[in-house]
Design the sequence.
């Protein structure tokens, strides 16, 4: 291991430079204006893998390419599937970035850029640890396959199709993903559960153009007013989601798990203070961590209607749209609940308003067993690199492919987050600590050895 660790420290600043080059590519999958850049991002990853001696290719899909790379030099040893995503979220609101989102800048030991932690920086740690092994020893202790996609932030649907059609090619014993967070600075974590999601958009149309609100207001349905009442109908006063059947399949937390969450060090006031919030809010009867990790929710992600420029303008808008997503927990079914949501809203539409519903994507929640030899290996790797035993946590975000790995490939995933939940993912000024980047790379280098131990190599 010493040789490998030396390689990692000798090459640390080059790794940072390469990450910076990667972060300059605006791989925004949700916005078709960036199509050429997203494809350039795939090529960047393919070349990284090819340069370190992997068989690497970009595979076309109906959407963005999937980068596939493999090194299978130890027959009989376990095969590890490393997943990551090279696409990023839109960087808006742009005026809140201190340095532009695709001009990476290092400030106080952190690299600032969209995708720094989610997921370019975290995913890069595995490429660099594999490089260190191959360049120093000419081998890896396990077989490794990389599947790096460009549509995670828009639901991974083409990836699901690829995995179903290529079971043999991607066959592996366990998956590894670094696209979650540590529990807190200095306290790394293994995430054993993620929430699922359903994402949709509703569009309301009233009059066929914006109208003078003095001439027409009060005599025609106003789509913005209607949208506001639809949004208000999603929750009751106890914070419970009102979509019929929403809670029917929810697996309640066990007492043991609730106690586990409660034992984690959590200074609620400080945690909320960091995001500019004074009082926690949500479903009555649950703690903040329970609400974030193990309760289903429904949030408006964006609302657009009428005049939003400077100063007043007296109109009845023609249209109103809302983007909505619900986070799901075991055993809620995203498809069924998307239909319930659509029906629930459609039933409330008054005469004079046309209702359209766009189903964007969905995936199920997942919870893994915390006892397995793979989990023990992950724990050992984190201990070796971070000098601390990781805590076992659930998280509230979603990574759609994790359920597909379970259902299609029959494998569990080790969710090993190197980032912090204060890294501003999906927010302005996303960043990733350079120290976390290097610790993550180190942990990854240990992981290959520990996953191999006990196997016939
Ligand atoms: N890295 C996140 C997932 C995540 C965030 C896990 C925070 C745990 C804590 C991932 O890239 C992501 O943002 N996923 C999307 C998926 C969705 C668009 C299908 C999400 O959760 O919104
Ligand atoms: Zn994300």
Sequence:
């Amino acid at each position: 291991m010493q040789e490998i660790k030396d390689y990692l420290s000798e090459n640390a600043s080059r790794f940072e430079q390469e990450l910076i080059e990667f972060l300059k590519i605006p791989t925004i999958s949700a916005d078709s204006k960036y199509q050429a850049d997203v494809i350039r991002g795939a090529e960047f990853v393919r070349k990284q893998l090819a340069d370190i001696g992997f068989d690497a290719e970009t595979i076309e899909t109906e959407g963005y390419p999937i980068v596939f790379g493999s090194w299978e030099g130890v027959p009989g040893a376990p095969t590890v599937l490393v997943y990551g995503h090279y696409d990023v979220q839109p960087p808006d609101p742009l005026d809140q970035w201190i340095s532009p989102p695709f001009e990476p800048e290092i400030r106080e030991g952190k690299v600032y850029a969209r995708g720094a932690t989610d997921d370019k920086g975290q995913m890069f740690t595995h490429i660099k640890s594999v490089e260190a092994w191959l360049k120093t020893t000419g081998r890896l202790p396990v077989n490794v396959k990389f599947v790096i996609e460009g549509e995670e932030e828009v639901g991974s649907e083409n990836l699901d199709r690829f995995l179903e059609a290529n079971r043999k090619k991607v066959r592996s014993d366990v998956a590894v993903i670094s696209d979650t967070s540590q529990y807190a600075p200095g306290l790394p974590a293994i995430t054993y559960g993620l929430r699922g999601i359903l994402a949709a958009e509703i569009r309301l149309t009233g009059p066929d153009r914006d109208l003078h609100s003095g001439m027409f207001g009060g005599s025609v349905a106003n789509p913005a007013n209607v949208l506001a009442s639809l949004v208000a109908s999603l929750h009751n006063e106890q914070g419970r989601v009102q979509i019929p059947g929403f809670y029917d399949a929810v697996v309640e937390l066990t007492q043991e798990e609730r106690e586990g969450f409660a034992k984690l060090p959590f200074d609620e006031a400080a945690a909320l203070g960091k995001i500019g919030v004074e009082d926690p809010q949500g479903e009555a009867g649950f703690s903040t961590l329970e609400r974030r990790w193990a309760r289903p929710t429904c949030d408006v992600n964006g609302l657009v209607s009428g005049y939003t420029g400077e100063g007043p303008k007296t109109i009845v808008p023609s249209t109103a749209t809302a983007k909505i997503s619900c986070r799901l927990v075991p055993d809620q079914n995203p498809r069924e609940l998307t239909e319930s949501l659509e029906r629930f809203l459609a039933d409330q539409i008054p005469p004079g308003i046309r209702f359209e519903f766009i189903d964007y994507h969905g995936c199920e929640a997942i919870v893994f067993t915390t006892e397995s030899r793979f989990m023990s290996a992950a724990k050992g790797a984190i201990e070796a690199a971070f000098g601390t035993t990781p805590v076992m946590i659930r998280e509230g975000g979603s990574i759609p492919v994790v359920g597909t790995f379970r259902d299609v490939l029959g494998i569990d995933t080790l969710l090993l987050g190197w980032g912090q939940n204060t890294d501003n993912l999906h927010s302005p000024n996303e960043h990733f600590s350079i120290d976390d980047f290097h610790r993550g790379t180190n942990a990854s280098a240990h992981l290959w050895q520990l996953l191999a131990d006990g196997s016939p190599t």
